[in-house]
Design a protein that fits this description.
This protein has 312 residues and is mainly α. It is built from 14 helices and no strands.
């Protein structure tokens, strides 16, 4: 098992290399960042001076080799926008905020999604089952910017149950401010987990070993929870890792709606202002998070299913 984990971890290196190379070339193909920073009315001398200060007047190949060489030593360059701060410092400020938002969203969607899926499967072909699946379809269909604005208007503005936006001032205040944007991020995941869990539970409940457990006289609760849920969790564990790209992309919209100062909002600001080093830093962290999420999903599946704990 450790050998398999090691091999899959090594695959992250070429994947991240290809992603960073593609983003570097794409950003350089979009035009001159000096114009985006100084504006269209800047003189030729001002533009040339800015290019010289930030090194964008050098050949593309030279800049690429310097950037990739810096990444090897943990140097992601200097921001064009944040008062010449290093990209590492900028990301260290924003990363914990997005990590908090993403972690809360994953917990919310897993807990509520699995609970609703189990309830729908146990109460299959009833009004409860129909209602849960109807809400799940609605949750998958509704875009994040629609649900976010709806929750902000009703739950924050109208009823005042949650803060309108921002980050807060202390730890408990951070959690309180993060709850509504995290729930907005989790809507699609809740619906997805509920549908997948219901389908897996229905298939598992029809299995021979479940009928055997019932024939032995085990209670329905023990039969469902101990026997059925564990085997039904296998595809759900995989979904947790695969949900990270959705969390990352959804965070861009959710953080913009709720004025949450995380990586998503930083990505929008950096793309708008053509702060290329920060954009590449955000992409690197996002890609690394997705790779780690997939690795954790593999480990989780192996922990639940002994059949995959082999090197063959």
């Amino acid at each position: 098992m450790l050998t398999v984990i090691g091999r899959r971890s090594l695959w992250a290196i070429p994947v991240l290399f290809v992603i960073q190379t593609s983003v570097f070339l794409l950003l350089n193909a979009l035009g001159d960042p000096a114009v985006a920073q100084l504006g269209p009315r800047a003189s030729a001398a001002q533009l040339q001076n800015w290019r010289h200060q930030h090194g964008t007047d050098r050949p593309l190949g030279t800049r690429y080799l310097e950037y990739m060489g810096g990444l090897v030593h943990g140097d992601m360059g200097v921001s064009h926008q944040e008062s010449r701060r290093s990209v590492t410092d900028v990301l260290e400020t924003r990363l914990p905020r997005t990590a908090l938002l993403g972690a809360m969203a994953i917990v919310i969607e897993v807990v509520l999604g699995l609970l609703l899926g189990v309830i729908a499967a146990v109460r299959r072909n009833t009004l409860v089952d129909t209602g849960v699946m109807g809400v799940a379809i609605l949750g998958i269909s509704a875009p994040t910017f629609v649900t976010g604005l709806l929750f902000l208007n009703i739950l924050a503005f109208r009823f005042g149950w949650f803060p309108v936006g921002g980050y807060g001032v202390d730890a408990m205040d951070h959690l309180r401010h993060a709850l509504l944007p995290a729930f907005t991020l989790a809507i699609t995941g809740i619906a997805t987990y509920a549908r997948v869990m219901r389908a897996e539970m229905l298939e598992t409940l029809r299995s021979d070993y479940i009928r055997t457990a019932r024939a032995k006289g085990l209670s329905e609760f023990r039969t469902v929870v101990v026997h059925a849920v564990r085997n039904a969790l296998l595809p759900v564990v995989t979904l947790v890792g695969l949900s990270l790209p959705i969390i990352v992309s959804g965070a861009i919209i959710s953080e913009a709606i709720y004025a949450w100062p995380g990586l998503g909002r930083l990505a929008v600001e950096s793309i708008t202002s053509r702060d290329d080093p920060v954009v590449m830093g955000v992409v690197l962290l996002s890609s690394l998070g997705v790779v780690i999420g997939n690795l954790f999903a593999d480990i989780g599946v192996a922990a639940l299913d002994p059949r995959v704990r082999t090197d063959g």
